[in-house]
Amino acid sequence: MAEYNRVSECVGLITLRNPPVNALSVSQGIVHTMQRALSDPNVKSVVICGQNGIFCGGADIKEFGSNMTGPTLIQMIHAIESANKPVVAAIEGSALGGGLELALGCHYRIAHSKSRLGLPEVSLGLLPAAGGSQRLPRLIGVPAALNLITTGRHVTAAEALQLGIVDQVTDHNTVDAAVKFALSVAGRSLDPRRISTHPCPQQPDLDALFEEVMQKVRQSARGAIAPIACVQAVRAAATLPYAQGIERERELMATLFTSGQARALQYCFFAERAVGRWRMPSGARWDTSKPRPVQKAAVIGLGTMGRGITVALAQTGLSVIAVETQEKQLMEAKQAISGMLERGAKRRGVAPALDRVIYSQNIQAVADVDLVIEAVFEDIALKTKVFQQLSAACKPGTLLCTNTSALDVDQLASETPNPELVVGMHFFAPAHVMKLLEVVYGPRSSPQAVATAMQLGKKMGKASVAVGNCRGFVGNRMLKPYIEEAFFLLEEGATPELVDQALEEFGFPMGVFRMSDLSGLDVGWRVRKGDGLVEPGTASGRSARIRQGRRYSPLGDLLCEEGRFGQKTGRGWYQYDKPGSRVARSDPWLHSFLGAYRAQHGLVARRIDHQEVLERCLYALINEGFHILDDGIAAGPEDIDVIYVSGYGWPRHCGGPMFYANMVGLAKVLERLEHYQQLHPEVPHLQPSSLLRRLVASGSPPIHKWEEAIKKLHSQL
Ligand SMILES: C/C=C(\C)C(=O)SCCNC(=O)CCNC(=O)[C@H](O)C(C)(C)COP(=O)(O)OP(=O)(O)OC[C@H]1O[C@@H](n2cnc3c(N)ncnc32)[C@H](O)[C@@H]1OP(=O)(O)O
Fold it and tell me: What is the pTM of this model?
C-alpha cells in the first residue's frame, strides 16, 4: 500500500496507494519503504506523496472497530521524524487527520494551492492522537492549534501557509516541486525541523486562555466529550515535555476511542455517504438511474422558503427564474434575495450571483427551464392550480418539484399529465442555510426524476435523503408523537422548562417548547384544524381530551386562542421582551394557566423526572421510525438518522434516533414502550411497532444488519 521509487537519482519517492483516499491502513508498508529509502546510500532525501491527487484522508475509519495490529501511526511518524535524511510531504487534495499528522512528522511540507488540510478527528469523536495534538501547537502556537483541533475545520493551502503549517504552496505539479525542494535541502541539519523537539511558542496568560476556550467548547459541545478532550490534549502540549504530552494524548484517546460517542459519530460519517446510495421499493437505485442535467431552474412563490431556495440554487451556479405574481411581493423578494446573496458572497469571499436570478410576475417565464421548484403557500388547491399551469407552460420533460412539508406529493402528481416527472423537495427553513433535503418520491415518480433531485440536492451541499410519500414524510412524521408526548407531560405535571431542559441536556440545541415558540404555534394549530381536531370551547374532563378515538391535548390550541403564537407575538410557551425577541423567559402566566387547566380537567400534577421526559418523547419518536422502516418509507436506518441529525437537531454524538435505539438496546426500548403503553393505553404511538417486536424476537441484530433483517422478516409475512 506504499510504493517506493527512486527519482532524480537521489530522492526516494514513497507513494501512498490505498484508494479512494489513501487512508492509512495499519498494515501499510510506510515504515518498510521508509527503511528502504534510509538504507539506500544513493538516496539523499525522501518525498512522501499520495496517488490520484490526494495525499491522505487519515487513518482508515473502517478499521476502528477491528483489532488493529502492526506499527502504530505514532511509531511510524516518529520513525519519519527521526530519519537522518530530509523527508518532504507533497500534499495534494487532502491531508486530513492521520494524513496531516504524518505530514507534521515530515521535516518539510509542500502543498498544492487547491489542497485542504485539517485535523477533523473531533468530528469522529476522537482527537489527533498520532502526535497531532502535540506537534501542531508546537508548530503554530496554542490559540491557532486549539481552533483547528477543537473545530476540526479544514484549512486551505493559503491559510496553512499563513499559519506556518506548510513551507511552500505551488500551483504546479506538487510532487515535482517537492522533489526539487528535497534536493535543495539535502544535507542540511534536521534538528530545527523536528517539531516534537520544539517547545510550544510562548503564550501570555495560558491559564486564562484555556479557561476561556474550555468554557466556549463546553457550551457548543452540547454534551460531546471529544472537543473537551482536545482542549485537554493541547493543554498537555503547552505545559508538558513532548513525551509526557504524548502519554496524556494516549490516555485521553483511550477514553474516547471506546466511547459510544465515537461510534455514533463514525456511524454518522458513513451514514451520510450511504444515503447517497438511495434505492426505491420498486428496485430503482442510484447506480442505475441517470440524472438529467439541470442548468436552469425556476422557483414559484417567493415567501420565506422560495427566497431561500432561490438563493441556494443561484449559489450553486444555476440560472434561476424567480416567480411571484404580485408586484409588491416580487419587489420585496428581489430586495431580500439580493441581500442574502450579497451577505453569502461576502462571507465566502466571492462575487454575489445577483445576475443569475431573473425575476418575473409571469409563470410563462418558466418555459425553457429544466426544473421547477414550487414553493407557494401550503394549500393543496393552490398547489394543484400551480402544477396545472406549470404543466402547460414548461417545455416537455421539465421536472416539477414541490416544496411541501406535509401535502400528498402523489395527489399533486396525479393533477399533471406526466406524474413521473413529479417529486417532492422538502427544504428546511432557512433553505439556503439548512443542510437537510428530503427528496420525496411517489409511486409514479420516475427513477430519473429522483436521481435528478438527489443530484441537485448534493450540488447545493445538502444532505439529501430519498424517502417515500406519506403524511409528514420521515422527519415531521416522527416529530408528531415526540411533540404530543411533550404536551401530555405538561398535562401530567411537567413544565415547558423541565421538558426543554431534559431535551437540551440530552443534546438538542432547543427543547420542544422553545422550538415551537421559534417556529410558531399557529403552524401546528392550522394543521390540527385541517384535521378536524380543534374544538372551540372549554369542555372539561377526560372526554374533552379524547379526539378521534385517541388521547389529545388541546394545550397548544388554547394558547393560540389567547393569541400566543410564540416569538412572533412575544408570548408562547415562554415570554419574550417584545414580539420577535429570541430570549425565552419563564412565564408565570403560563404556569398558572397550566394549573387551572389541570384543575379544570381533574388532572393531578405529579413529579416528572428527566428520564421520563427522555423516554417518552424519544422512544415515541423512535417507535415511529420503526413504523417508517416497516412501511418502506425510509430504505434504512441511516436515512432516518441523517434526517434527524442534519435537520432536526438530534445530537450527532448520539448518532440519530435509530442508532441511539440500537445503542440503548432494542429490548430496553421495547420494554419501556410497553411500560408507558400500559400506563397510557389511549396513546397509540406508545404501542410498540411490530417491526421493533420482531427485531427483538429475532435477537436484536446490530444496526448494520437491520435492512437485511427487515427484508427477511417481510419475506416471511
Ligand atoms: C486517531 C484518528 C486518526 C489518526 C484519523 O486519521 S481519523 C480520520 C481522519 N480523517 C477524516 O476524518 C477524513 C474523512 N474523509 C473526508 O473528509 C472525505 O472523505 C475526504 C475529504 C477525504 C474526501 O471527500 P470526497 O472526495 O467528497 O469523498 P467521500 O467523502 O465521498 O469519500 C470517498 C470514499 O472514501 C471513504 N473514506 C474517506 N475517508 C476515509 C477514511 N479516513 N477512512 C476510511 N474510508 C474513508 C468514504 O467513506 C467514501 O467511501 P464510499 O462511501 O465511497 O464507500
Answer: 0.95
